[in-house]
Specification:
The chain folds into two domains: 32 residues; 81 residues, Immunoglobulin-like (Sandwich), CATH 2.60.40. Helix content is 22%, strand content 43%. Strand 3 and strand 4 form a beta hairpin. It is elongated.
């Protein structure tokens, strides 16, 4: 047995809603989402750190020195100051050196620095880098 849908009398509950209003809200919502995504994408570049670094490796020469190799990415004409440290087995800082990475023809430079240590280190790492004014 089939039934036909029951419809209220015309005009009883106000005019029937058209689908145009629904599609208008969907369109506005999609437009807002696109604008937010574009602002986030463009703004993300402005919020990016002006200098980035990545540890490449280290070599413990002896109890008095450790070599640390790292990459620094920055603007070609900028100078960065990086704090590099050597750590003991108990994570104590046993040596530290600040090194400046000057202007270059490339955005990324590989740097190796020798850190004098007070005792045997088991690792070496870059703590941070900052652009020098």
């Amino acid at each position: 047995m089939s039934q036909t849908p029951v419809r209220p009398p015309a005009g009883r509950y106000g005019p029937e809603r058209s689908h145009a209003r629904t599609w208008t809200f969907v369109g506005i919502g999609a437009l807002v989402a696109l604008v937010v995504a574009a602002v986030w994408w463009v703004g993300g570049g402005a919020l990016e750190d002006p200098v980035q670094w990545k540890d490449v490796g280290f070599h413990v020469s002896d109890a008095s020195s450790t070599d640390v190799t790292f990459d620094v990415t920055k603007a070609k004409d900028a100078t960065a100051s990086c704090r590099v440290r050597a750590l003991s087995q108990s994570y104590a800082e046993v040596g530290v050196k600040t090194v400046e990475v000057g202007p270059s023809d490339a955005d990324t430079q590989r740097v190796t620095v020798t850190i004098p240590t007070a005792e045997l280190a088991v690792s070496g790492t870059v703590q941070d880098c900052k652009i020098v004014d």
